[in-house]
Amino acid sequence: MSSRIAVLVPCRNEEAAVAEVVRAFRAVLPDSTIYVYDNNSTDRTAELAATAGAVVRREPMPGKGNVVRRMFADIDADIYLMVDGDGTYDAAVAAAMVRRLEEDNLDMVVGTRTPVGPDDAFRPGHRMGNLTLTRFVGWLFGPRFTDIFSGYRAFSRRFVKSFPALATGFEVETELTVHALELRMPVAEVPVSYSARREGSQSKLSTWRDGLRILSAILFLFKEVRPFKFFSAVAAVLALVAVVLSWPLFVTFFETGLVPRVPTAVLVTGIMVMAFFSLACGIVLDTVSRGRRESKRMRYLAFPPVRNGTDPH
Q1: How far from 72 is each of 65, 79, 82, 160, 278, CA to CA, in Å?
Q2: How much is the pLDDT for 7?
Q3: If we measure between CA atoms, which residue out of 48, 44, 10 comes closest to residue 172?
Q4: Which of 22, 137, 158, 303 is the least crowded, having the fewest Cβ atoms under 10 Å away?
C-alpha cells in the first residue's frame, strides 16, 4: 500500500473486543496508523487499545457523529478506513477495500454486511430497519447502495475533508451516504462478513429510538439537498387537501349560486395560498442548495484524488 492509511475506530465501552480489533487491522495493514477514539467509555477500552498498539484519543461529546467529526478533523492521511470497535467486521477485507479505492480511483468503498454465525449477528429489527431505510434513501437520492448503515468504510482524503459532518449520533452513516450521492462521487461496495458481538459487548443502537432519529435525519437531508422536490411535495399535498375541502363548495355554488359555508371557503383559500408559498420556497431554496453544492464541489476538488502506487500520473 503506497498511500498513508489511517484506520479510525470509534469506541464506547468496547473492552471486550477493541484490543483484538487493533491487532487484526495491524496484521492486515501493517503500514497504517490505527487511531482509537474513546467516547466517554466507563471501562478499560482506552487502556486496552493503547496496550494493543493504537493511538488513543478522546472525544467527550457523546454520539458517534461527534466522534466521526472529530476524527475527520484531526487526522491527516491519504486513505481513511473507518470501522466499529466491536469486532463484528472482518479485518481481512480491509486490504481489498483499500486496494479497490486506489485501483478504481474511488472516494468511498462501503463494506456491505453479510451475517455469519448465530442469528443475533443481525437482529431482526435491525435487519428490517436497515432494508427499509436503505430503500427509502435510494428512492429519495438514488439507489447506489445496498447497506447504508455499515460502519465499515474506506474513504479518500477529498471525501473526508469535504464532508460537513453535522450529525451527532448513528445517523452519521446516512449523512456519509447522502454526501457521496449529492456530489455524485465514484463509490463501490465490497461484501464483508458480519459476526456477532463478543461476549460482554453490547450494542448502543436502539431499534426504535435511533430508527426514528435516522428517519428524521433522512427527511432533513432531503429538504436540504433536494428542496424543490421536498417543498413541491408539500405543496401538492396542501393543494390536494384544498381541492377535497372545496369540492362540496363548488357543487353547492353551481347548484344554488350561493356559498353558505364561508369559514370553509376561507380555510380552503388559506391552504391553497400556503401551497403556492411552499412551491415558491422550493424554487428559491433550490437555487441556494445549488450554490452550496457548488461550494462543496470546489472544496472536494481542492484535494487530489487517490492514485494507485503504480500510476505515473
Answers
A1: 11, 11, 10, 6, 36
A2: 97
A3: 10
A4: 303
